[in-house]
Write a structure and sequence with these properties.
By secondary structure, the protein is α+β, with helices and mostly antiparallel strands. Helix content is 18%, strand content 34%. It has three helices and ten strands. A hairpin with a 4-residue loop joins strand 9 and strand 10 (167-174). 17% of the residues are buried.
């Protein structure tokens, strides 16, 4: 009788633990069917869908990278690393006809190798208080804080611009075999 009671208790705890584990994991049923790539980036969808990507996940690109958002073109040309900052050579071209675009370097966010995030450097002389008139462009360097990692495989750079509407830009940069500029 005691053996049946103990055996029932053990089996019940195993079933209960499994049920809690499956219900306690967010999106457990979905995660079982979705692959995770080797570099720990989560990729949504089934294996067959990954080959025909919808573009919702970041695609790493080589420099220079250009994006356009409602008439404003943003290009990242190169990256420079120093002991205190990580700098990005950029060009912003305002292709609108009647809208002035303002740059706020304090909203710069840089993420390296899917781990550490840093914000803007306190000094950004090329773009602090900068406005770009319709049909004009501005070229210069925008600085983020220094990244701690020695070897960079990838960077995600995010910045938003103000005008009659806010425009957000996000660049996923492939840093493998990239020669960083130095001073």
């Amino acid at each position: 009788m005691v053996k049946k009671f103990v055996l029932g208790l053990v089996c019940g705890s195993i079933v209960f633990t499994g049920a809690v584990f499956m219900n306690g994991t967010p999106n457990a049923a979905q995660d079982i069917d979705n692959p995770v790539s080797i570099d720990s980036n989560y990729v949504a969808g089934t294996a067959g869908e990954n080959e025909k990507s919808s573009g919702s996940e970041f695609q790493l690109q080589k420099l220079p990278i250009t994006q356009t958002n409602n008439g404003v073109e943003f290009t990242v040309h190169s990256i420079r690393r120093t002991g205190l900052t990580t700098d990005f050579e950029i060009t912003i071209k305002n292709g609108t006809t009647n809208e002035t675009v303002a740059v706020d370097p304090s909203r710069l966010v840089v993420q390296s190798n899917d781990s550490s995030k840093v914000g803007a450097s306190p000094t950004n002389p090329d773009f602090t208080g900068a406005t770009i008139l319709p049909g004009k462009e501005r070229h210069g360097w925008i600085s983020g804080q220094a990244l701690t990692e020695k070897e960079l495989d990838s960077l995600i750079v995010e910045l938003s611009l103000d005008g009659s509407e806010q425009r957000a830009f996000s660049f996923a940069i492939d840093c493998k075999n990239l020669k960083f500029r130095t001073l």
